[in-house]
What we know:
The structure is a single chain. The chain is mostly helical. It has a single domain (61-333), classed as Rhopdopsin 7-helix transmembrane proteins, CATH 1.20.1070.10. 77% of the residues lie in helices and 0% in strands. The protein contains 14 helices and no strands. It has helices spanning 6-19, 25-46, 65-96, 105-131, 138-171, 173-178, 181-198, 201-204, 226-259, 266-304, 311-328, 331-334, 336-342, 344-372. It starts with 5 loop residues before the first helix and ends with a helix. It comes from Gekko japonicus.
Amino acid sequence: METANPIVTEFQADLTKTNGLKSVPLLTDSVQNQHAGVAHVAHLASNGLSLQSNASPDNCTGPGVDFQHALYAVSYTIVFVPGLLTNSVALWILCRFISKQNKTVIFMINLAVADFAHVLSLPLRIYYYINNYWPFGIFLCQFCFYIKYLNMYASICFLTCISVQRYFFLLHPFRAKNWKRRYDVAICVAGWTVVGVGCLPFPLMRDFKNTEACFTELEVKKISNKAASLVMVMVAECIGFLVPLIVVVYCTWKTKVSLQEYRTPLQNAVEKQKALRMVATCAVVFFVCFTPYHIVFFFFMMVKETVITDCGTVKSILYIHPFCLSLASLNCCLDPILYFFTTSEFQERISRSSSLAFRSRLMSKESASSEKE
């Protein structure tokens, strides 16, 4: 039990006698607060800490919840409408009208399925970001969270397969004639399996304890060993993005070089032009949608693991990350360019369908005018 200061007690008694006051607690509290403040500073100094060390990365807050929710709601709404229309039409034409002679059709169908699945999950995301509330349960939150990354890496996988196949068949046209469609099916099954298993850590590394929160409000589980965490991220980035990017860039470059060769027959030149447009489109999707996200994601994980502690750098990364994540979903609108503008059979089917629709409308108008007469 602490003893009172005799000087303060005597002074307090004098004030009580002269002014008729019972006690003066304020003076005693101020003296005790001063002693407590000195003791707290001494405790920090004894542990080798300074007052400036309290400026930890946790105090460097990124964009607020309202800003992120508004950004995601707008960006996903922009992606949803054209993504739903283009991928629906693409799946309908690819599954029904593309002839069996087109070797990349299997990869295109799987690419469209991956995009279509992600597009169908966007309304739930938009609902959450507008209402700031998730009423659909933990499982559906995990599933939508998983579909986001499944679409991203499935798109990377099948875009890489399209680029490699187009370049390989251009380099070895005789092997293309003997290529079996079941080979493409086997590659797609293997691709879905690898990507599906590889994307499981994304939902598993998030905390789903709050049933009313989802997506941006899910905290990242910290791994005790920071070095192991960063090694895992680097390996995943290399296998899931860097290696496919190098392959796509190489196929684009070699296809362009083969097109510039002298004495190329006209028919081969046309085929090379088609192949170049296709692999170049794959490269554009890589650089526009996936490259910014994967560059920022590595630094984002370093922030979450408190490896990066500079406040300005932390804020910059936390503000850039939502924009890159929104940009990654734009691939659902860019992937159909492969079908509409780089596949001649696709263009022919669309032109035939549009001409038939125009003819039917014209005939209906003529029949209606003849009945009136």
